[in-house]
Write a structure and sequence with these properties.
By secondary structure, the protein is of the alpha+beta class. It has a domain of 44 residues. Helices cover 21% and strands 37% of the residues. Strand 3 and strand 4 form a beta hairpin. It is globular and about 40 Å long. 8% of the residues are buried.
Length: 63
């Protein structure tokens, strides 16, 4: 990572009733991402939300 860049390795994923998955957002910390995922769950959304860390190769690796 070079100076002036921000690392956002944590993502929130949403899965709808049909099994389609969408990236909701990227975050600097797991706690921040989990707070967002929890806020959607608290609103009573029927979709499933979870947090993943983006791996070195750019892929999400579920944690």
């Amino acid at each position: 990572m070079s100076e002036g860049t921000v690392s956002l390795p944590w993502i929130v994923i949403r899965q709808d009733d049909n099994g389609n998955r969408y990236r909701v957002g990227r975050y600097a910390t797991r706690a921040e991402a989990q707070k967002i995922a929890d806020s959607f769950d608290d609103r009573g959304h029927k979709q499933l939300y979870w947090v993943e860390r983006i791996g070195q190769n750019g892929d999400g690796a579920q944690n």
